[in-house]
Write a structure and sequence with these properties.
Number of helices: 2
Structural class: alpha+beta
Distance between the termini: 34 Å
Mean pLDDT: 91
Strand order of the largest sheet: 1-2-3-4
CATH superfamily: Gcn5-related N-acetyltransferase (GNAT)
Number of strands: 4
CATH class: Alpha Beta
Helix content: 25-40%
Low-confidence stretches: none
C-alpha cells in the first residue's frame, strides 16, 4: 500500500498460487498520484516481498488493449511469455 500523509494513494495485490509462483493481480494508483513513480515503487516492494517468501515466478497479466500496462511491466523487466484469452467469470453476466 502506498501512503501520502496517511492517505492511501495506491496499492498492489498479489495472489500466491503456490510456494514458488504468484500472480501480480493489480497495481492501482489513484489518478492524481499517477506518473510519479508510485506504481514502480509498489511493484518493486511487491517483488521483493515475494522473493523473500521464496517465490521464483511472478505472472502479470495485461489486457490486449492495455498498452500502458504492457510498457510498464516491460520497463520493469517482465517479458511476454505467451498471449492468451482469459475468460473472466463476471463477463458471463454482462452478455
Amino acid at each position: 500500500m502506498a501512503l501520502k500523509d496517511s492517505e492511501i494513494i495506491g496499492f498492489a495485490q498479489i495472489i500466491e498460487w503456490d510456494a514458488s509462483t504468484a500472480e501480480l493481480d493489480r497495481i492501482i494508483i489513484f489518478p492524481q498520484h499517477a506518473r510519479k513513480g508510485v506504481g514502480t515503487r509498489l511493484l518493486h516492494e511487491a517483488l521483493a516481498d515475494q522473493k523473500q517468501k521464496g517465490v521464483k515466478k511472478i505472472i502479470a497479466n495485461a489486457g490486449k488493449e492495455e498498452n500502458h500496462a504492457r510498457r510498464f511491466y516491460e520497463k520493469n523487466g517482465f517479458k511476454q511469455i505467451k498471449e492468451a484469452t482469459i475468460e473472466a467469470p463476471w463477463a458471463k453476466n454482462c452478455r
